[in-house]
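Risk register update: the risk of archive-format incompatibility is retired. Evidence:
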Amino acid sequence: MLKSLRSLLGLNDGQPAPAIPAGQRVYAVGDIHGCLGLFEALVAAIEADDARRGASATTLVLLGDLVDRGPDSAGVIRLARQLAARRTVRILLGNHEEMFLDALESEEVLRHFLRYGGRETVLSYPVDPATYHRAELDETLALMRAAVPAEDIAFLRGFEDQVLIGDYLFVHAGIRPGVPLDEQRAADLRWIREPFLSHRESHGPVVVHGHTIFERPDFGHNRIGIDTGAYRTGRLTALGLEGTTRWLIEAVQDELGAVSATQRSLG
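Archived output:
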């Protein structure tokens, strides 16, 4: 039974379980992609869970891709800013935040940004849809620059590339296997899939990441993927970590649009 549990959690026999330092607690949240209702429900569930577990130095880590694809990226950024003003929140710059910021400076990047979910981000700000749909690319850029608050841009520019807490490394997409953490390229941290996903050797710390959608959280001995495709599946996942204990909290939207939160212990 113990062996099967360790296998489920992606642990190798004979290796010590990865741990968060004593007195700390971490909640890592997968890619939100503009799904404000799911994010609100997940935050409420995390804060209730955090209170039940007692006093701790708690850190909320958002793994990036707060924006694009879903209906309310502006609202997600607003809630993330509010959270960061009242508790310890560390946020990773995802590839979609990178495109968002670069699109504000380049029409060529803007073209790709709009194609991969940026349209929904633009329209989550006070931009008239009819005006947007009539606009040429240069006009769309002007609309964006007028509508996106400077505070949001500054907030996004403050996002991090990687966060190391105890035996866990939090990144958006993954890391380049075999490359020291302080030599990782930002492009890999935000965009990589292979050879990271199929790599079976230890990275040192266990890498917790988003970016690649899994039907359910994907546990390996060297990485944990928690992007469960919120904008597509209606399910947003958080991984809780304290000591050597792990648990999942998920916000789920049903076919009628109602959102509920569930929790599952992983031992």
